[in-house]
Amino acid sequence: MLQNTFIHIQSIGAITEQRLWESGIRDWASINNEVSIPLSAGRKYYLDKGIAESLEQIQRSNPAYFSKLLPSNQCWRLFPEFRNSTVYLDIETTGLDRHFNKITTIAIYDGQAIKTYVQGQNLENFIEDIQKYKVIVSYNGKSFDIPFLEHHFNIRLGHAHIDLRYILHNLGFRGGLKGCERQLGINRGDLSDIDGFFAVLLWDEYQRTGEQKALDTLLAYNIQDTVSLENLIVTAYNMKLKETPFYETHFIEDPILPGNPFRADLATVDRIKNSSQ
To answer: Residue 152: CB partners within 8 Å, gap ≥ 6?
Structure first.
């Protein structure tokens, strides 16, 4: 879908892009055909320049170029082109303020392998591992996960970023990651009752008692958030395709999601719930 996209080019908006599609200019290569272009000379100049630059950035395998130019609710368009260098990311923390709270666990999933990072064990390994990827998919990561990570590690994450919060909101889905999942019929099973606040309680329990089952439950929750992002980006991508002429040719099959290597311990969950009440 990226090479069918024109709205990242200067002076080309959604209405102009639709006019280009309707006139037969469906992708960047079409501009070389004998097709009448419904643009002024000035816009035609920017279109030619933008396509040339876009082709160069594709050759350089630089998704960040497109991520910066596309509206946040349109970054889904770069997903298939760079899927093989995409990572799904979610963090858990002791609170919401990155200046006063700490990261407890991080989970990443690249469509093949799951990795987890735990405070006091291997959290610093994240810095090297995240550099293997060019695209980050998150939910609300632009406002929360990425600023938190950059502050915690004192690094700059210059990856292209697909934040599903904006895309799903544009599709009419609200209520956080788990709220969107429920609206889309996704069931978390034993992890259904665990949320971000409860994740803080799980970490506190682990810190206080050293109980491995509390940490395992937290990691199971963290991983579920991460793995779910692949399912959601594919679902959102296909739904957004229906707004374009390319649904039949660009549709993506649902991914086969991996099993979660950690399990929620329900006895631990019940005990923490009862003590917190």
So the answer is: 98, 102, 103
pLDDT at 38 over 90: no
**pLDDT for the residue 221:** 96
What band does 36 get if pLDDT is binned at 50, 70 and 90?
A: confident
Q: What is the pLDDT of residue 277?
A: 67
Could you tell me if 244 and 237 are in contact, meaning their C-beta atoms sit under 8 angstroms apart? Answer: no
Measured distance CA(187)–CA(98) in Å, rounded:
30
The answer to whether residues 146 and 52 touch, using CB atoms and an 8 Å cutoff, is no
Identify the pLDDT of residue 34: 60
Mean pLDDT (whole number) for 56-62: 97
Within 10 A of 276 (CB to CB), how many other CB atoms are there?
11
List helix spans (H) across 60-195: 63-69, 125-130, 145-153, 164-170, 176-183
In angstroms, the CA 152 to CA 193 distance is 28
C-alpha to C-alpha distances, 83 to 80, 186, 241, nearest whole angstrom = 5, 22, 16
The CA distance from 23 to 223, in Å, is 45
